[in-house]
Amino acid sequence: MTYFIQTFGCAANTADSERIATMLRDKGIKPARSVETADYVVINTCMVRESAENRVYGLLHNLQQQKKSVGPQLIRLWRKEQKIILTGCLVGMAVRDGSGKTMKRLRRKFPMVDEFLPIEEVGFDILPLRQDKIQALVPISNGCNNFCTYCVVPFTRGREKSRPYAEITAECLKLKAKGYQQVTLVGQNVNSYGSDIIKGVGGRGLGAINTIKICRKEIKPVMVKSMGKNRIPTLFPYLLEDIAKMGFGRVDFISSNPWDFSPELIRIIAGNPNISREIHLPVQSGDNEILKKMNRFYTREEYLQLVKGLKSKIKSLKLSTDIIVGFPGETKVQFHNTVDLCKKVGFYKAYISEYSDRPMTAAHKLYRDDIAPREKKRRWLVLERLINRQFRNS
Ligand code: SF4
Hints:
By secondary structure, this protein is α/β, with parallel strands linked by helices. It has three domains: about 1-120, Rossmann fold; about 130-265, Transcription Regulator spoIIAA; about 275-394, Transcription Regulator spoIIAA (2-Layer Sandwich), CATH 3.30.750.200. It is built from 16 helices and 17 strands. The protein has helices at about 10-25, 50-70, 70-80, 90-95, 100-110, 155, 165-175, 195-200, 235-245, 265-270, 290-295, 300-315, 330-345, 360-365, 375-385, 390-394, and strands at about 1-5, 30, 40-45, 85-90, 115, 135-140, 140, 160, 180-185, 210-215, 215-220, 220-225, 230-235, 250-255, 280, 320-325, 350-355. The strands form six sheets. A five-stranded parallel sheet has the order 2-1-3-4-5, sandwiched between helices. Strands 6-9-14 form a three-stranded parallel sheet, sandwiched between helices. The longest helix is centred in the N-terminal third of the chain and has 20 residues, at about 50-70. The two termini are about 40 Å apart. Iron/sulfur cluster (SF4) binds near residues 153, 154 and 189.
């Protein structure tokens, strides 16, 4: 028996697919050369943008057509043999919809899918089957509590859940022993790593967080402040430093939200040269009104202040970012504020996306997707030319 995994979306999905591969391998199933020849086809889905979702539908449609093209007799045989398993964001959203309507709709739309696998059933405690022997993705948390109004992740992955500290460090030590040179710590918001662990062991209130015992060490969680207020306690600076001290050539982390970027974290990065100097800091917009409508917990000024702090403490810093153009109601002046912020920061790379209306999100409920596709494209191109020129020419 063989399997083929098709992964759509972000590094978190790639890391999930590596653990699904282990699960299949442990059942004695081997990798297939192609999707057509596999006995098990696993499709790990993404819903962040409509275009990503459409690619999943396209693949499922093609698989269905292939089944049809071999004729009814063979279909029965093939159907019996080739199993299609759907997992990732589409399934995550369906299992979280208590009414069961989303799951019913998925079943109706894709009768050829044999199993809908929620990623929680795979869990974190399986060691991933990695193709790359030099660089490893290491998940540190799953889900998100932030509810940016455009984002579907809290509905597809649920609330933030941190992986146990000792489990992460043990995995990294094993990777080091195996000769891995780079690790990338992955979470929807790595900066808030451990917040749930701290609260679970008695950290009360936001003002007075007690010390907690982690890996036989008593540590005092770092309190993250945003917009002048205490926001959440986090363990991420400790975790990052512990992993950097293991001696990897390079330690990366994604994604790192600006409002949870503490001075302690800057200090740890500055003091450990093997922590990557390429930091991904999603800004999404450079306009305060749009940031507020997006439910991002910072202003343009605070973002620029953070960048200034990072640049002053970390030599050879290179910043990349995510930007959404054409958010509902975004005027040309507001877009220009984003262009202006990008010029001030000097990002070396940006993942620019045109706003895509996503089901269940607050933006879907509150705002009309009113920027014309042509205008979204124009804005996309302005930023693409400004920031990503070197990649376009290469
Ligand atoms: S921080 Fe915002 S954009 Fe990122 S995963 Fe959470 S809700 Fe989505």
